[in-house]
Amino acid sequence: MTTATLGIAMIGHAFMGAAHSQAWRVAPRFFDLPLRPVMAVVCGRDRARTEAAAARLGWAEAATDWRAVLDRDDVQVVDICTPGDTHAEIAVAALAAGKHVLCEKPLANTVAEAEAMAEAAARAAAAGVRAMVGFTYRRVPALSLARELVARGRLGRVHHVRAQYLQDWIVDPAAPLSWRLQKERAGSGALGDIGAHIVDATQFILGDTIREVSGTLETFVSERPLAAEHSGLSGTAVSDRTGPVTVDDAALFLARFSGGALGAFEATRFANGRKNAIRIEINGSAGSLAFDFEDMNVLHYYDGGDDASVAGFRRIVVTEPQHPYVDAWWPAGHGLGYEHAFTHQAVDFVRAVAAGTDPAPSFADGLQLQRVLAAVEASATSRTWHDV
Amino acid sequence: MTTATLGIAMIGHAFMGAAHSQAWRVAPRFFDLPLRPVMAVVCGRDRARTEAAAARLGWAEAATDWRAVLDRDDVQVVDICTPGDTHAEIAVAALAAGKHVLCEKPLANTVAEAEAMAEAAARAAAAGVRAMVGFTYRRVPALSLARELVARGRLGRVHHVRAQYLQDWIVDPAAPLSWRLQKERAGSGALGDIGAHIVDATQFILGDTIREVSGTLETFVSERPLAAEHSGLSGTAVSDRTGPVTVDDAALFLARFSGGALGAFEATRFANGRKNAIRIEINGSAGSLAFDFEDMNVLHYYDGGDDASVAGFRRIVVTEPQHPYVDAWWPAGHGLGYEHAFTHQAVDFVRAVAAGTDPAPSFADGLQLQRVLAAVEASATSRTWHDV
Amino acid sequence: MTTATLGIAMIGHAFMGAAHSQAWRVAPRFFDLPLRPVMAVVCGRDRARTEAAAARLGWAEAATDWRAVLDRDDVQVVDICTPGDTHAEIAVAALAAGKHVLCEKPLANTVAEAEAMAEAAARAAAAGVRAMVGFTYRRVPALSLARELVARGRLGRVHHVRAQYLQDWIVDPAAPLSWRLQKERAGSGALGDIGAHIVDATQFILGDTIREVSGTLETFVSERPLAAEHSGLSGTAVSDRTGPVTVDDAALFLARFSGGALGAFEATRFANGRKNAIRIEINGSAGSLAFDFEDMNVLHYYDGGDDASVAGFRRIVVTEPQHPYVDAWWPAGHGLGYEHAFTHQAVDFVRAVAAGTDPAPSFADGLQLQRVLAAVEASATSRTWHDV
Amino acid sequence: MTTATLGIAMIGHAFMGAAHSQAWRVAPRFFDLPLRPVMAVVCGRDRARTEAAAARLGWAEAATDWRAVLDRDDVQVVDICTPGDTHAEIAVAALAAGKHVLCEKPLANTVAEAEAMAEAAARAAAAGVRAMVGFTYRRVPALSLARELVARGRLGRVHHVRAQYLQDWIVDPAAPLSWRLQKERAGSGALGDIGAHIVDATQFILGDTIREVSGTLETFVSERPLAAEHSGLSGTAVSDRTGPVTVDDAALFLARFSGGALGAFEATRFANGRKNAIRIEINGSAGSLAFDFEDMNVLHYYDGGDDASVAGFRRIVVTEPQHPYVDAWWPAGHGLGYEHAFTHQAVDFVRAVAAGTDPAPSFADGLQLQRVLAAVEASATSRTWHDV
């Protein structure tokens, strides 16, 4: 075990904050890391709630002024887990202060903000400061394996990509108007929140980028009850007033990748019965792959070269020591869960920082993805295809 | 068993001819029919091959002139199983001759032809002559059950329709240039051949129609070897010359239904490893349905009203006596196969003829569907949304 | 098409009669047969019902005296579809009369009867007369493929066989006392009715026989309402009197095969929610196979020699032209149903008769299987292992 | 967060040690605990390796004398993660020293040892000292839910239990002779190592115990290469000498539960392609349940009371806040992994200690299970049924 440390400051402590905390805590217990993460300080707006979060999540200190955190010598990494409208300001300042930055996805709520962040990251990289955006699903072992298989040429020329991210948490019209349904906070709805994940995952697996899109957006329920004031974290108490939903409930788009593949994408919060179903299927001239996050330790692979009498999609249980990240965990057949991908992200980030290399996905990658989302929105307005 | 008969003339005797023959043969053995189908005559272009087909498929006579068949008094039904470019001429003439017509899908290769056929069917209906287009998949019990559940209100307001028809039979660039890859014979490629099926099936299940579309077409392999002259039915012998593929290999489109549902459609012959995967998923405010023809006796159903601790997609094995068409066959758990839907089609057609009612889908339904396909093609050219 | 014919007399016309009729009707339409089956006469106890069955099922004549049928010159095959207590008498007489015999499973209700039948078949074989017992599931293409893969050495040394046949049709204690629940008619309950199928299927796939067993039988509901007199085929009307169930509701046994494999078998009519789930899994030193009749067109195959990073059970959709029996039917991906295996049985039987070879499974095979069932019953009584 | 602490000493630091360490570390971060676990000391035989484990796994100290650990005032819990042959000595001493004990399964290698341990636990309980045996799978949320559903009467009278634990890690005859294959260390092979888990899980779900068994054991490969001396943790280096395998490779048994259910159990390390497949299916008069650890976040449930037209096994994704343990983790659809059940075990243990109640499964439960295993072994020898 190394004695060299890497001090972390985490900004935000809700859902993503819990996942990132678990990652920093667990990573050095299963992986050999060149630097030992130290959970130095968590930062939030409300002192009492931030202190409770620090105790619960295991941070040494709580703070309420993120700018002050940037001055601390014991902090080398700023881990941004706040809503998207605050990413740009914090990340740009942190990079300017010489702190490595891990920023939750989406990089920002607008292309302009993302551009500023990518520029800041480019400047910082010249000074040896690293920046990474947090698309964790690519670090689910089954999806990492998918990329490896494509990179090894196992799929040949890719013809088709189809990807769906299906949830149902607001199918009830009585579900309250959370910040995720307000454009000024969330930037977009299903498109940016979950559509972003399948764009990243498929571009990552293919090692290719989307060139043009034709999409449509829909808001099925346009008015929802406001959450009651002072309602707690559970967020279920609603008032008798309502407010407008200003983001999309569902986003669908067709896409063409630079390498010629056709894509069909769908992200929705209205797929009744689907809780967090991320489905990706890729068909190439030499084989195919299929994945569903509802069975996250499995990758289906069709080898077009198999003898016809025994060809079929193989249900690969991605828990073998040969599979990405798996060797650090349990014996074959002992599956991983949702948060393990966050641990893998922390591992790769720490290793890149120690090695002085740029971790992926970079802020430039995050910007490119933001441009894809913006093209979908533009296409939905103009009702035509749009270049990214 | 009735002694009244219904004389059938079948035009064409390839893949669809074999399926229809099986249906006429088997239907009266399992279902109570008001008229007994008599397999009177099969008609083809080549005498020797048609006579062989008659013997093999069980038709009393073989003929080579379909017009002469229309004059026969022992023929009450003309069953059209030829390629799409001949449908209009035969069907219009048969209806004019007072013969009931069952015409394979797609109704025609162009909207203009389909319009003429729908007009002929309307005129014939006034005279008590029936016309039906053969979209058999809607008579797979699981899909018939899907329609029943939607009609019963089990899904509530439908938000999402996603449908894929995935095959891989020409993913090999060395596969020869069959008539199905030539626009003048086939009309279109994946779009009309298989895309038509998922349009019909989803419109049928919803009891709703597609209002507008935005689509794209792709031909991945634009030049293919010609089949060798005199090559037999198996069609594998190829010459060393090549010719252009003039239809789409894949068709993708987004759609909006009149009732407000969003649709995502994909039809392709390049999904490596998928042989005949028809996948349909429908999400509504009260529940969801999912189907895959690779497991054709099963319908997945999510009841949004189930208690949360035990809610989940139900794997309904659609072989109970309560399920559509099933009671005539075997005990529960003894699944049906591909051709059973053709038998169900024959049953419904014979019953409609006997009852003097119009069978569904009508030629008007076939025309509406043709307009959906035409709108997809127009959209693919203009790169914008098109009304149907 | 051949002009030589093979006249069939079918004895019994209930569930199995319908399945066999469909097989004789359909087989020559899809397969090249050296002799054309002629559905000459169906024989039952009740004249009116037998005539109705002849009309419905497509037999030229109806008869009520099976012995008289044996005298007919236009009958070359006797197809026995009656309950098990009548098999021996009919089969022995038919063979003595020089008729080829296809006898539904189980061969008989007792070992003694089965011995007499096997002896009769051996004598008849010397005179060129063929006998076969009807275990159709081995002719489901996925299970035929399973045998091929084992025979090709794809599994290596077989270590494990686990097989379950799960139904639930009498889980309701109010279900009436049918003949299948009476020992004098049915011989045994779940053991002989459905357990027999998984014994045959696994012995067939392995090309090996069960050497010894240790089993237990259970009757969960020992008294049931009698069916009302004159109740029809549907059999649901019950009287207010009850009678004893004299067969097993469930049979479980462990087995050792001659080749060293361990078997775990379970047959039950009390597996709530399982309608006709035949599950077979075989694990060998080089690979594994798994099958479930609820998804009957699929065989799962694990190749232990696959590279570890991409190894996994392959979901083989057994609808390729390379697969057993499939080439005669539809294109890839168009699945078969329950009754197709009966057609395959008819095809193999006709071909064997024409070729002058013994079809399998033979009456000797049926006798061996009967001895396995008898050993299970003996073991259940003695509570120890029994040799077959 | 509480400030009261609970000092833990863990004995052993291999596979189970890593899993338990993760549990102690993570439990207070997601669950509200009345006492905060302190990872005080880990104990092993080799000082250097134990110190390395302490650093890696996050224990404050390393020790090599487990008896000395029992004298420490800062230790209130002894967590036993060593092989089974050492459990009895450590547990009895720890309980006598007034330490709460969490002991990995199986409780011991013999019934006699288990009896001594259960007696020690009974004595300790009188003094307020708690003892628990570590069958973690019952705390996988899907299996906890299974028990809840049975307890709520959702299955009615249970007729069938079928359970398999399938692995393949020694199917290769060249796999070396580890301690798990030596009777003096491991007690038994597949039976005690993995068969024990499905016995516990099914007894737990039913709330019933096994009354009698009939089983068989098999060792397919009786001689294996010895591991090379000084071979590391990975254990793959083998010497050119061999030694005898003295435990079973596979164990199969039939069982009868006290409440009348029939059981079929199979545990094997020779199921090629199955890595850690724990499959449990339970059929009752009112419904059924099915589980497979390869898809560990899912429970399949059949409600026999559902309307027949929509009845089917429900695929419950056990990630809802209504499900056991789940509310503490992530939103719906974000699955858990293998080690989460260890965290749940730690949570329940800490809560029981704080509440002064006896955690389950108790040492008495572990003893009862040991008697089931012993009865299977006796039955395998005598080739008859044995009472537990």
From TrEMBL, chains A, B, C, D:
InterPro entries: Gfo/Idh/MocA-like_OxRdtase_N, Gfo/Idh/MocA_oxidrdct_glycsds, GFO_IDH_MocA-like_dom, NAD(P)-bd_dom_sf. Residues 7-125 form the Gfo/Idh/MocA-like oxidoreductase N-terminal domain. The keyword Oxidoreductase applies. Keywords: Oxidoreductase. One of its GO terms (molecular function) is nucleotide binding. Gene3D superfamilies: Dihydrodipicolinate Reductase, domain 2, NAD(P)-binding Rossmann-like Domain. SUPFAM superfamilies: Glyceraldehyde-3-phosphate dehydrogenase-like, C-terminal domain, NAD(P)-binding Rossmann-fold domains. Residues 146-289 form the GFO/IDH/MocA-like oxidoreductase domain. It comes from the Bacteria. The keyword Oxidoreductase applies. This is Putative dehydrogenase. It comes from Saccharothrix texasensis.
